Every structure is written in structure tokens, then in C-alpha cells.
């Protein structure tokens, strides 16, 4: 292709991208830069702000409550992210193979919770897990199991919220994985069967490699949801018992709107951004944007 034509095509492509780039700059890039700028100040939104450099960051890592919130966020993410992805992938595989009776009803039932607002999910499960009137503790007693106090036990409150998150979010990941599965030609599975490859080998050598773009998309989506989780824990536990379920987003909210320390809250947000961005880069490096068919 002549150089002049390539340049013209590049200019046309840039013209089509320009509206998105403008919106992305206004609503994403500028807020990130401005948030970092705020984090370097003792910020007063209605008065004079004082530049203090990285003091907010140093104060945070010397604050046991922030360290606890960071640790809680990582624990929750370590439970929730694999669980959400695994449940979505398992049901996508079962529905593709037709191994679930009433597949359409199962798919609809699994996707329906995703349509609910976070407040509805939190209130619903707070009621279901209530130690006095909750359905889940009641049926555990019926089968002879002494139910734990799910939302008031420091040891299990984060895994409990992670399970609720999987119930809420796995349906959308299932849809993403089903789209990835439907893009894989059936001829590959037939050829593998003729060569003697069983279901397990087909899964690891055909399904997973060809689903890399779908897995990458679902993983990053779930990573952001897991690391930035706020509404669910706010409604279900308000960070309790004590601070056992106080995650970074909730700590940031309280730092900004209860303590009015906006500079330190911005520092929390930027730390959260760096963690999510760094892990996303690792996922891009490991999984890549293309499947083996590309």
C-alpha cells in the first residue's frame, strides 16, 4: 500500500476515534491526573490547599486501619474473583454441552441476579443470612448444622460476601464465556475426538486457548469489580464486625466524607488504581488479546 494511502487511512481512523478519545480524556484521563494532583496536597475544596508531596501516601502505610483495609480487599478479591469466573465458566460449559436439564431456565435464573441493584442484593442477602430470621441459617439447623453468624464473624464475613458476589455477578460472566465458546468451531472438537483426545485434553488444549480474549475480558471486569467493591459491603456489613470487612473503597469513602481528608482519600484511590492497572497489565501479558484462531 502506498505511503500516502496509509497516511490517509490513518487520518480517517483517527477521525473516527476522536469522539471516543475526547470523552475518554474528559471522563477518565483528566480525573486520574487530577486525583493524583489532589493526593499530593492537604486538600481544602473551599479554601487554600497546601502541597505536601507524598506525605499522604506515607501516612496511609503507617495507618494500621488502611493496611487492614488493603489486606481485606486482597482477601475478598482472592475469594471473589476466582469464584465468579469459575462459576460462570462451569455453567457456560454445561449449557454448551446440553448437560443441564432445562438449560434455558437455568441460564435465565443464573443471569437474573445480575440485573438487580447492589442495594437490593445487599438487603436481600442480609435478610437471608440473618441469624434469627434468615432462611439460610434456618435450613442449616434443619439438616443438623449449627450455622455460623455469617456477617458478624471476622473469619468468614469476607468469604460470605464473596459467595454473594458470585451469586450476583457470575451470570454475566457466563454469557461472556458462552459467546467465547460459540466462536470455537465444532470441527476442532471432532478432529480431536478422532485423534483420541478426551474431554479433559480438549478443554485444556482447545477450549481454554481459544477462549483467551473472553477470559481476559471477564477477568479484568471481575478484577475491577472485586478491588473497587463498595456498595455491597456498605449495605451488608458497613465494614463490620469492627473493621473486619472494611475494604479500600469503603475506607476511601469514610476518609473523604466522614473525616474530610480529601487528599488522603485521593491517595487511597490512586493506590487502588495502580494495583488494578498493574494486575491488568499482567493479565494482558499472560492472556493476550488474540485467541489461537487469530
From TrEMBL:
What are the protein's UniProt keywords?
A: Cell membrane, Membrane, Transmembrane, Transmembrane helix, Transport
Q: Which PROSITE patterns match?
A: ABC_TM1
InterPro entries linked? ABC_transporter_permease, MetI-like, MetI-like_sf
Domain annotation ABC transmembrane type-1: ranges: 70-283
Membrane topology classification? Multi-pass membrane protein
The transmembrane segments are 12-37, 74-96, 108-129, 149-170, 215-235, 262-284
Q: Where in the cell is it found?
A: Cell membrane
Which SUPFAM superfamilies does this UniProt record tie to the protein?
A: MetI-like
**What positions belong to coiled-coil segments?**
none
Keyword Transmembrane tagged: yes
**Mainly localized where?**
membrane
Family that this chain belongs to? Belongs to the binding-protein-dependent transport system permease family.
Q: What is this protein called?
A: Sugar ABC transporter permease
Which organism's genome codes for this protein? Answer: Jiella sonneratiae
Amino acid at each position: 500500500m502506498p505511503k500516502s494511502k496509509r497516511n490517509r487511512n490513518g487520518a480517517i481512523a483517527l477521525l473516527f476515534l476522536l469522539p471516543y478519545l475526547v470523552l475518554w480524556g474528559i471522563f477518565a484521563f483528566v480525573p486520574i491526573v487530577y486525583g493524583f494532583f489532589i493526593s499530593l496536597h492537604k486538600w481544602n475544596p473551599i479554601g487554600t490547599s497546601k502541597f505536601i508531596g507524598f506525605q499522604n501516601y506515607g501516612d496511609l502505610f503507617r495507618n494500621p486501619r488502611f493496611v487492614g483495609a488493603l489486606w481485606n480487599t486482597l482477601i475478598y478479591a482472592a475469594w471473589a474473583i476466582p469464584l465468579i469466573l469459575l462459576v460462570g465458566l462451569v455453567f457456560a460449559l454445561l449449557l454448551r454441552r446440553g448437560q443441564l436439564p432445562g438449560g434455558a431456565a437455568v441460564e435465565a435464573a443464573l443471569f437474573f441476579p445480575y440485573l438487580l441493584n447492589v442495594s437490593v442484593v445487599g438487603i436481600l442477602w442480609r435478610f437471608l443470612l440473618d441469624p434469627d430470621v434468615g432462611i439460610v441459617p434456618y435450613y442449616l439447623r434443619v439438616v443438623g448444622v449449627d450455622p455460623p453468624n455469617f456477617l458478624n464473624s471476622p473469619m468468614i464475613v469476607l468469604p460470605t460476601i464473596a459467595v454473594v458476589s458470585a451469586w450476583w455477578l457470575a451470570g454475566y460472566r457466563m454469557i461472556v464465556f458462552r459467546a467465547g465458546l460459540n466462536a470455537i468451531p465444532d470441527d476442532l472438537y471432532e478432529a480431536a475426538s478422532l485423534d483420541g483426545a478426551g474431554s479433559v485434553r480438549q478443554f485444556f488444549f482447545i477450549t481454554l486457548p481459544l477462549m483467551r480474549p473472553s477470559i481476559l475480558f471477564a477477568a479484568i471486569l471481575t478484577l475491577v469489580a472485586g478491588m473497587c467493591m463498595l456498595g455491597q459491603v456498605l449495605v451488608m456489613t458497613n465494614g463490620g464486625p469492627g473493621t473486619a470487612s472494611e475494604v479500600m473503597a469503603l475506607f476511601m469513602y469514610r476518609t473523604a466524607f466522614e473525616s474530610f481528608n480529601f487528599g488522603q482519600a485521593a491517595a487511597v484511590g490512586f493506590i487502588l488504581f495502580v494495583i488494578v492497572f498493574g494486575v491488568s497489565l499482567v493479565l494482558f501479558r499472560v492472556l493476550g488479546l488474540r485467541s489461537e484462531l487469530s
